[in-house]
Amino acid sequence: MRKTFIIIAAFIAGFVAVYAESPQAIIARAAVAKSEKAQGEILTELMGNADESILPLLDAWRKDRLFLFEASSKPPVVVLLQGAKDAQGAQEAVDIITGKPIANRLAADDLNAASHSANLRRIMKAVLDLTDLSSANPAKKLGAIAAIGQGQQIEKLPALEKRLAIETDPQAIKALREALALVRLKSPDPAVKLAALKELESLQSLASTDFVKAIIKDATAAKDEALLAAARSALQAVERHRTVVDFGGTLFRSLSLGSILIIVALGLAITFGLMGVINMAHGEMIAIGAYTTYVVQNIFANGLALSPFGFSVSLPGLHTTGWWRESYFLFALPLSFLVAAVAGILLERGVIRFLYRRPLESLLATWGVSLLLQQLLRLTFGANNVQVGSPAYLSGNWVVGDILLGWNRVFVIGFATLIVIGVWLVLTRTSVGLLIRSVTQNRQMAACMGVRTERVNMLTFALGSGLAGLAGAFLSQIGNVGPSLGQSYVVDSFMVVVVGGVGDLVGTVISGLGIGSFDQFTQQYSPTVAGALANVPFVGGALQNLAQDSAVFGKILVLCVIILFLQWRPSGLFAARSRSLD
Question: In this structure, which of 175, 382, 435, 517 has its CB flanked by the most CB atoms within 10 Å?
Answer without folding.
Answer: 175
